[in-house]
């Protein structure tokens, strides 16, 4: 919340923040200039006091927008529905963890913007890990898209944006055909161009090896010695053949019992020795059972089965498998990059994703040297320390730096001042804040500003953005295809009022007020589109 309030206040917005009094940012938010209301639970009366107070006469709320940043999706949805009942026209911005639930909110709430922090932040961490600045990720037309070189983008490509190879002057938005040519394209994902040697989960074979650890081996060695010694005693002093002697000794040591007529004729001291050995065997069997049960049922089982097989190299180690870490795993897997996850919570969201993607996971504290060694940090190419704790990430980065000075390290840190000092003095690598990556998007949604992404194409640039057809503009009633300009503007998708985005729109259909367009264009082409889609001003009276 602190980052969002900072972004909004710096943009000139008047902000009322409802903050849990126990929050460590409570005082700091007030110092920024926001009006702070302390509350643990958001109620209808509290929202009314904060400015969500539309009345039955249609008078709008004094609040222009409501931003919900609770980590609990259910609480956010409940509060959003309450606010919508209070003011049907209020602009609501909701940060959601569950993307599926977020997609359903527009149908429930109307004028609603859903922000998914992990989806916005994860590509930045991946780019740091791979030192990859050739791709640009963006949200456009209700989809998560990527712009880059054609050989990097997964087919089918949505459109060709530019051709920078044909001449010294790049051709922007080349005329599309059945097989358009160009090297900068827009797509929905990244191709798997190469794949490092996969890092494979340990599996059951490796699990069995770890189950039979030193404790099991020591107990088994003692039992084997007793069986061997008992076999010799029974054979030499009981005049029983070897195989039968082995059977009797093993039965005594393993507490399986003795059932042999010839043994009844053995000397008394042999029988007493057999009883003592059998008692020892009972104790050893109990110990053996306890050790195996501990290995199979204890917390170590998750680490054993999900651990790393062999000695991986040139992989990426992701420390922290929360919602951001889960998305990072998905993107790295799409890129074909070998990856190992680390988290001390076996129920973390990313652990479930890792199991689904067959990514090995080491369960343990990422700031512990042995945990990082188990993940192969000493041979990896990059480490992402992205747990929820700044200190844990810092400790993990320091340990990883000691184990592998050549690894590229990126830390997730909320405290901006701490991050700057760590980067300057310790030289551990880059640091990023999820909240700082997400806050600008939330501030833009509050102000209903048109967000745009700049894509370089040689020495020229293209802009990708969304534009609304406003009532009273000359665009109303015109066919969609008339807006396209060769080399200047291309309409990519259309959203009818109250409908969903259509990425194969009918270009012959006329435009209506309220329609929203996803477009790519040059600065001049976009400027002409804005003049077309905005109401025409009446000439001034002379």
From TrEMBL:
Keyword Transmembrane helix recorded: yes
Keyword annotations from UniProtKB, A to Z: Membrane, Transmembrane, Transmembrane helix
Protein name: NAD-binding protein
Stored InterPro entries: NAD(P)-bd_dom_sf, RCK_C, RCK_C_sf, RCK_N, Trk_Ktr_HKT_K-transport
Boundaries of every RCK C-terminal domain copy: 452-535
Record-annotated RCK N-terminal domain positions: 313-436
Transmembrane stretches, start-end: 219-238, 272-293
Native species: Kribbella hippodromi
Gene3D superfamilies per the UniProt record, alphabetical: NAD(P)-binding Rossmann-like Domain, Regulator of K+ conductance, C-terminal domain
Highest rank taxon of the organism: Bacteria
Keyword Transmembrane helix: yes
């Amino acid at each position: 919340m602190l980052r969002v309030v900072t972004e909004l206040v710096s943009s000139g917005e008047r902000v009322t923040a409802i903050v849990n009094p126990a929050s460590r940012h409570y005082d700091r938010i007030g110092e920024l200039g926001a009006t702070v209301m302390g509350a643990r639970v958001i109620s209808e009366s509290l929202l009314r006091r904060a400015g969500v107070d539309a009345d039955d006469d249609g008078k709008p709320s004094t609040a222009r927008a409501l931003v919900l940043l609770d980590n609990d999706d259910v609480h956010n949805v409940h509060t959003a529905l309450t606010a919508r009942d209070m003011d049907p026209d209020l602009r609501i911005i909701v940060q959601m963890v569950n993307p599926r639930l977020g997609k359903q909110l527009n149908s429930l709430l109307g004028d609603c913007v859903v922000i998914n922090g992990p989806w916005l932040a994860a590509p930045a961490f991946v780019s740091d890990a791979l030192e990859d600045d050739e791709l640009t990720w963006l949200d456009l037309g209700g989809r998560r898209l990527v712009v880059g070189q054609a050989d990097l983008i997964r087919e089918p490509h949505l459109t060709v944006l530019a051709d920078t190879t044909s001449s010294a002057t790049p051709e922007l938005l080349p005329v599309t055909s059945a097989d358009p040519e160009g090297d900068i394209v827009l797509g929905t994902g990244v191709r798997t161009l190469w794949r490092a040697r996969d890092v494979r989960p340990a599996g059951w074979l490796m699990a069995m090896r770890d189950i039979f650890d030193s404790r099991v081996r020591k107990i088994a060695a003692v039992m084997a010695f007793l069986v061997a010694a008992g076999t010799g005693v029974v054979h030499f002093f009981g005049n029983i053949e070897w195989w039968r002697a082995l059977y009797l000794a093993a039965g005594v040591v393993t507490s399986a019992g003795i059932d042999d007529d010839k043994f009844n004729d053995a000397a008394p001291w042999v029988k007493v020795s057999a009883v003592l050995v059998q008692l020892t065997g009972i104790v050893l069997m109990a110990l053996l059972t306890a050790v195996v049960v501990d290995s199979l049922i204890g917390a170590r089982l998750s680490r054993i089965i999900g651990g790393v097989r062999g000695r991986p190299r040139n992989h990426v180690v992701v420390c922290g498998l929360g919602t951001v870490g889960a998305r990072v795993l998905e993107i790295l897997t799409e890129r074909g990059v070998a990856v190992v996850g680390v988290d001390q919570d076996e129920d973390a969201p990313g652990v479930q994703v890792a199991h689904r993607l067959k990514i090995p996971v080491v369960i343990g504290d990422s700031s512990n040297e042995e945990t990082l060694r188990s993940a192969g940090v000493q041979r990896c190419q990059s480490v992402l320390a992205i747990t929820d704790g700044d200190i844990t990430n810092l400790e993990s980065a320091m340990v990883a730096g000691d184990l592998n000075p050549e690894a590229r390290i990126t830390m997730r840190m909320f405290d901006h001042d701490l991050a700057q000092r760590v980067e300057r003095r310790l030289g551990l690598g880059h640091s990023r804040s999820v909240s700082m990556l997400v806050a600008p998007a939330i501030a833009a949604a509050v102000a209903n500003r048109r967000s745009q992404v700049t894509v370089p194409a040689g020495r020229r640039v293209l802009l990708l953005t969304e534009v609304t057809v406003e009532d009273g503009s000359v665009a109303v009633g015109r066919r969609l295809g008339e807006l396209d300009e060769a080399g200047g503007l291309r309409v990519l998708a259309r959203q009818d009022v109250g409908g969903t985005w259509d990425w194969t729109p009918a270009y012959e259909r006329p435009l209506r007020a309220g329609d929203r367009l996803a477009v790519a264009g040059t600065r001049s082409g976009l400027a002409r589109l804005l003049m077309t889609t905005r109401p025409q001003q009446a000439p001034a009276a002379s």
